[in-house]
Amino acid sequence: xxxxxxxxxxxxxxxxxxxxxxxxxRVAARPVGNVVPTDFExxxxxxxxxxxxxxxxKTHYLGLAPVMRFYMQGTGAAGERVLEPGDVIHxxxxxxxxxxxxxxxxxxxxxxxxxxWQTYKVSKMTDQEKFWRMPPNDLPAALGSGVLGMTGxxxxxxxxxxxxxxxxxIMVLSGAAGGVGSMVSQMAANxxxxxxxxxxxxxxxxxxxxxxxxxxxIDYKSExxxxxxxxxxxDGMDLYFDNVGGETLEACLERLRLHSRVVLCxxxxxxxxxxxxxxxxxxxxxxxxxxxxxxFVYNHVDRWDAVMEDLAxxxxxxxxxxxxxxxQGFQNMPRALANLYYGRNVGVQCCSVRGEPEEWN
Amino acid sequence: xxxxxxxxxxxxxxxxxxxxxxxxxRVAARPVGNVVPTDFExxxxxxxxxxxxxxxxKTHYLGLAPVMRFYMQGTGAAGERVLEPGDVIHxxxxxxxxxxxxxxxxxxxxxxxxxxWQTYKVSKMTDQEKFWRMPPNDLPAALGSGVLGMTGxxxxxxxxxxxxxxxxxIMVLSGAAGGVGSMVSQMAANxxxxxxxxxxxxxxxxxxxxxxxxxxxIDYKSExxxxxxxxxxxDGMDLYFDNVGGETLEACLERLRLHSRVVLCxxxxxxxxxxxxxxxxxxxxxxxxxxxxxxFVYNHVDRWDAVMEDLAxxxxxxxxxxxxxxxQGFQNMPRALANLYYGRNVGVQCCSVRGEPEEWN
Lengths: 361, 361
Prior knowledge:
The structure is a homodimer of 361-residue chains. Chain A has helices at 6-13, 68-72, 150-162, 179-192, 203-210, 225-232, 246-253, 284-287, 304-317, 333-341, and strands at 22-27, 40-45, 55-63, 92-100, 110-114, 120-123, 132-133, 170-173, 195-200, 214-219, 237-242, 256-264, 291-294, 324-328, 348-352. The first copy, chain A, is α/β, with parallel strands linked by helices. Chain A folds into two domains: 6-146 and 323-352, Medium-chain alcohol dehydrogenases, catalytic domain (Quinone Oxidoreductase, Chain A, domain 1), CATH 3.90.180; 150-298, NAD(P)-binding Rossmann-like Domain (Rossmann fold, 3-Layer(aba) Sandwich), CATH 3.40.50.720. In chain A, the strands form three sheets. In chain A, strands 3, 4, 5, 6, 7, 14 and 15 form a seven-stranded mixed β-sheet that branches. In chain A, strand 11 (237-242), helix 7 (246-253) and strand 12 (256-264) form a beta-alpha-beta unit. In chain A, helix 3 (150-162) packs across helix 9 (304-317). The longest helix of chain A is centred in the middle third of the chain and has 14 residues, at 179-192. The relative contact order of chain A is 0.16. The A-B interface holds A 78, 162, 245, 258, 264-265, 267, 270, 276-296, 299 and B 78, 162, 245, 258, 264-265, 267, 270, 276-296, 299. Chains A, B: Residues 24-128 form the Oxidoreductase N-terminal domain.
């Protein structure tokens, strides 16, 4: 391997966790460009004791999202504290209440919320921390760190609240093999009835997305995106769900139909540029009366229960196959994050903190 | 005067029209940058005779819009024929049926539609030409070339169909003294109940817009737009109605509130750049869940009657003062168009083809 990820394997090689301490990953340095191993600091502290009104939580799964690089850079932490070097990295996950001195929470309960990159946490379980009980849906707890977590809420909010998808829409979707993308493609095709053209990198991912909602795939690593779009949707698209930004967004803006919609979910292709990307053709929104809308998942948490009921229902109905890409072991959290920027993950990137056997994926 | 407009006065100086011929302005050369007198060709032809099923129309007023420079360049002519050098320039206006061999139109009727820059036209009055009878609203016919013409439809569609304005919204509006802007500001303030912050160039225009719906004005020629926005709406805006694009759009995208809206109406500051403007901060739409939407007025013509009824009603109610800036005489059409790019007009730029005395403005 010559892609930089092997350095993350070396970072993890001498590290293991156990139940005798609290293990943490902290910000060592603010990332410049892509994350590198020296951006992360491994720390071992005592397991904290819960005080009155507090619980002790034990982490089982943590979810990874592209935004975490921004957290480490001290930006993008809407609703969370801005991180400084030395701080535990933000991250939501699935945990169990192992001690409780809080009247509303009992030992053994499974929860999901803001754990941070650590194996234990003491919490007052305030609203601000956004902890929720895992819903009783007979689905694996691991899904709470991804498909039934913030990634699922993002996919649902982006597609339904922003994208206003309609049956028979031609939807183009970038990042189709990723966490949000693999959910959006299935929901658009199987719940709404859209024709989905997905973009992904490499033959393997393109085969994957064609089994998960996409009727056609564009391999952005080996194919010319504008040419392929012209071939696959010669009359343009009704909906573009953007996970990548950059020139791909520009190519789609050139191929919009009347009253189309553009959902701005992410722009991962822009995150490691030195200069901000500058969009040359936003005025294309005019002639086609296109609505381009961004969304921020934390603005949608008040709809959490209803969204999770939708998602669990579609999983049970076979309309949404939950796909999580699970790194085994807390020591591999930095690599799990790097996977996102290297385009390595298929489905939602998560980490099984304690490396349990995993039925899903 | 040293601003280039005096050359247009020289262009007009030796030209006059009468009822003995059809006078025309044609494309002489495709404009490069701003329009210049040598882009226009004066032509005199015979008054055409209507055949069976046709009418002869006599032009009284013509409206001017920034898009006309694009028509002359051979672009932007959605719904109209692409212009080549030698063609009569596209333009809508108010005319009278002076001969009719068409069963549905009688002599003396006033109409508005695609006349082109000429003093007579023979028409089959097909749907494609988009001719309408002037509505019976007891308002001056001149308004049909602007406030009650395509400019009015643009202002209405942009504000209501795209902007979704709400009472107490803080709306920022660029180009507030212009044709669309002077209508949008009054409708937003007086019909909807928004607080409108307008931008215009120069003290005189700023005084004007404060008498036409704007509670505050920013003079973009002498003031720093970001600083003034920070002072006038420190918590940001709910709605930005964009007539200018460029850095002004960027400054507003930095100052959006949650669930705000951006209406892309025009980008006149970008039209004469050599390179397309490249928007550096479109990703600001994400954190605030802002909806940025363009519109194209020709997509709204099916709502013509209802929109005109709204506008005429608001004029009668005193909520909308119609402001038209009327050049006198067909020979001044090139100058009337140049006024737009030089920021000279206040209100909707029109031309009284026959230079009649004009009660309005």
